[in-house]
Amino acid sequence: MLGLILAAPASGSGKTTVTLGLLRALRNRGMAVRGAKSGPDYIDPRFHAAACGRSCLNLDAWAMPPEMIAGLAAGDGLLLIEGAMGLFDGAPPDGRGAVADLARQLHLPVVLVIDAARMAQSLAPLVAGFAAHDPQVRIVGVILNRVGSDRHAAMLRRACPLPVLGVVPRDAALATPSRHLGLVQAGEHPDLAAFLDHAGRVVGGAVDLDALCALATPLPDAGRVPLPPPAQRIALASDAAFAFAYPHLAEGWHAAGAEIVTFSPLADEAAPPADLVILPGGYPELHAGRLAANRRFLGSLTDRAVYGECGGYMVMGDGLVDAEGRRHAMAGLLRLETSFATRRLHLGYRHLDASHGPFPGTSLGHEFHYATTLRAEGTPLFKARDAEGTALPPMGLRDGAACGSFAHVIAPGDPAARRGRT
Fold first, then answer.
1. CA-CA distances (angstroms) from residue 377 to 281, 327, 372?
2. Is the model's pLDDT at 349 over the cut of 80?
3. Which of 248, 250, 7 minimizes the C-alpha distance to 106?
4. Do 98 and 23 meet the contact criterion of CB atoms below 8 Å apart?
5. Main-chain phi, psi angles of 8, to 5 degrees
6. Are 98 and 87 in contact (CB under 8 A)?
7. DSSP state, 219?
8. Beta bridge mates, 367
9. d(Cα 123, Cα 120) in Å, to the nearest integer?
10. Given its phi and psi angles, is residue 408 left (phi above 0), alpha (psi -120 to 50 degrees) or beta?
11. Domain boundaries, the chain
12. CATH 3.40.50.300, domain 2-218, yes or no
């Protein structure tokens, strides 16, 4: 049970590609290695799992209490945690939830991944400043990314005040396709296995893997924290249109005794018998015409307890307008019309409070989507505040046993609820 954090000074430094290459290279060595992702990210963890062959969980220092983070991080082998944004970047006003919080809570060392494509001696003050910024965050080494030549690498090595664990060259084949919420999903990558094998060869050959692994330190000894399930038997939509479901929630519910069954709306599968149907987020706007034609799926939601998040919430509405301006009839469970014809980013952590629905009481979550709400009529599901505690307009809708919102729930906000007590 050893761990190490891969962070960066800023977004766009190539952390994900370096992490995937390391996971693949270490797996190919025969090591037991796992990946984890800091913060609210649904896409990178699927790439982690494909790279090392083991499930990847999110560790969210804003929404999860320390005991939950320690329990999720526990496990055999080496855990490589990929950071999000810059090492000290978190939610306003004070950066809570940053990768640095995970380093402090788990007492793990940090390796900085630095995009060195456009720097040389300036690397020195950058690394020195990060290393000295917080004594509780131990930066133990650097991986230099997108380096142009051997001469460039030599200049960077001479300038760097911390051990250089690897120099990864510029390589166009390491680029990954993206869309409006980040990378294209792992299951949609045109040749994922070949990409991961190439990343493993390039990154594994450029980084001193023995030196990297020697820097890892023990993780806290902790067990999983079971989460009170919203129902005893849960039907969970799962396919390319509904892929944004946090594994720690389903695993926590299962550990608490719930039964989870999955189905594919894109395959026009009816939601199976269950106490609650959950439609998670994803990319329904890319499959809106197909979903609108899947009458078996849509019909199976009638007179059921259904909960939708983000994309799932949009599918519960009357209609969804795609990016080309075409309207597609959806399930009609809520008086909701949404559109991607005019996109606007909605982003941030959320404090949520509900008196009804599958998550009564307080919850912590986040919002990340580009949809525009054209019409939303009815009773809201959540009272909402942003990360700074500022009141926001009510979120979501509820109508009978059907409810949903654009928020993604991460964890209960009440410590007693996290322990299953009321």
1. 21, 18, 15
2. yes
3. 7
4. no
5. -155, 165
6. yes
7. P
8. 348
9. 6
10. beta
11. 2-218, 233-418
12. yes
Identical fold between 2-218 and 233-418: yes
d(Cα 40, Cα 36) in Å, to the nearest integer? Answer: 11
Quote the pLDDT of residue 343: 85
Residue 181 or 61, more confident: 61
The catalytic position among 52, 56, 310, 403 is 310
Q: Is 213 a catalytic residue?
A: no
* C-alpha–C-alpha distance, residues 369 and 404, integer Å: 15
- Alpha carbon 66 to its chain centroid, in Å, reads 18
**What are the φ and ψ backbone dihedral angles of 204, each rounded to 5 degrees?**
-65, -35
Evaluated on CA atoms 299, 303, 304, 310, the torsion sign reads: positive
Residue 418, pLDDT > 90, answer: no
State the residue for tokens 């009481």. 361
The amino acid at residue 141 is G
Question: E strands, 65-221, where?
Answer: 78-82, 110-115, 139-147, 164-169, 178-179, 182-183, 217-218
Q: What pLDDT is recorded for position 180?
A: 54
Mean pLDDT of the chain: 93
For the stretch 67-105, pLDDT in tens is: 999 999 999 999 999 999 999 999 999 999 999 999 999
Are the beta carbons of 398 and 381 closer than 8 angstroms?
Answer: yes
Domain 233-418: give its CATH code.
3.40.50.880
Contact yes or no for 285/341 (Cβ under 8 A): no
What's the CA angle centered on 119, arms 113 and 122, to 5 degrees?
90
Phi, psi (deg, nearest 5) at residue 369: -160, 165
In the predicted structure, residue 183 carries a pLDDT above the cut 70:
no
Q: Enter the tokens of residue 334.
A: 């809520």
- Residues 60, 410 contacting (CB under 8 angstroms): yes
Tokens linked to 194: 């070949």
Inter-residue contact 397 to 416 (CB < 8 Å): no
